[in-house]
Amino acid sequence: MTETVETARLMDAVYRRQRHFYDLTRKYYLLGRDHLIDRLAPPSGGAVLELGCGTGRNLIAAAKRYPDARFYGLDISRQMLDTAERNIARAGLSDRITLIQGDAANPAATGPLGVAAFDRVFYSYTLSMIPVWREALAAGAARLGDDGRIHVVDFGQQGRLPRWFKALLFAWLKSFHVSPREDLEAELVRLSQGMEADLTFRHLYRGYAEYAELIPKPVG
């Protein structure tokens, strides 16, 4: 509980001012978010959860793209949720997007939403910010329905980009408490085995970003 409270305070401190211009700046380097949204394809009437929803940008875009689904967002930062609520209301989507404050690593955090299971759970540049990111992935898997899918996009290891670029980028990200996960693919492999799911893992933009899907294997 203490760690959760401290994380919430840290995120509120980091984004207290940034949240007001977050979306204007992040669109230039949080690459692959729209690719994830294009791949969500929830079933009609389905429930979609974003863990670490920030300003609500992804939820708004996804709700417009998939008008027959309902969307839910969880974030540990009250500051970011305040901004997300205003953005969602401005987009006229308050009836289809519901937000809740909580710890992404806690499977029970979405309990008050009253949704038994989600058809899609996604993480967009979130795991690189969550200290207990493995637990957050496991918690997302625990929230899935039988045919539910997990989608992830986050910073990659810059494998096909110049070393100086990686050094500068990682140093800059560190100042915002962001740590690209070197073993993200390995952790997703382990999780997919436990879920009996097929894993698709792609390096985007010469390794700048990484995108993954976990899809349950067909029964029989």
Give the arrangement of secondary structure elements.
Elements: H1 2-18, H2 22-26, H3 33-40, E1 47-51, H4 57-65, E2 70-75, H5 78-90, E3 97-101, E4 118-124, H6 133-142, E5 144-155, H7 163-174, H8 184-195, E6 197-204, E7 209-216
Parallel strand pairs: 1-2, 1-4, 2-3, 4-5
Antiparallel strand pairs: 5-7, 6-7
Helix pairs in contact: 3-4, 6-8
Q: What do you see in this structure?
A:
The structure is a single chain. This protein has helices at residues 2-18, 22-26, 33-40, 57-65, 78-90, 133-142, 163-174, 184-195, and strands at 47-51, 70-75, 97-101, 118-124, 144-155, 197-204, 209-216. With 220 residues, the chain is an alpha/beta fold. The protein has one domain: Rossmann fold, CATH 3.40.50. Strand 4 (118-124), helix 6 (133-142) and strand 5 (144-155) form a beta-alpha-beta unit. It starts with a helix and ends with a strand. The model is unreliable at 18-25 (pLDDT under 50). Strands 3-2-1-4-5-7-6 form a seven-stranded mixed sheet, sandwiched between helices.
Q: What key phrases describe this protein's structure?
A:
single chain, 39% helix, 7 strands, alpha/beta, Rossmann fold, 8 helices, 220 residues, seven-stranded mixed sheet
Query: What's the helical proportion of residues?
Result: 25-40%
CATH architecture: 3-Layer(aba) Sandwich
> In percent, how much strand structure appears in the residues?
15-25%
Please give the alpha-carbon distance between the first and last residues.
42 Å
Q: Using the coordinates shown, work out and report the CATH topology.
A: Rossmann fold
Count of structural domains: 1
Following the backbone from N to C, one meets helices and strands in this order, namely: HHHEHEHEEHEHHEE
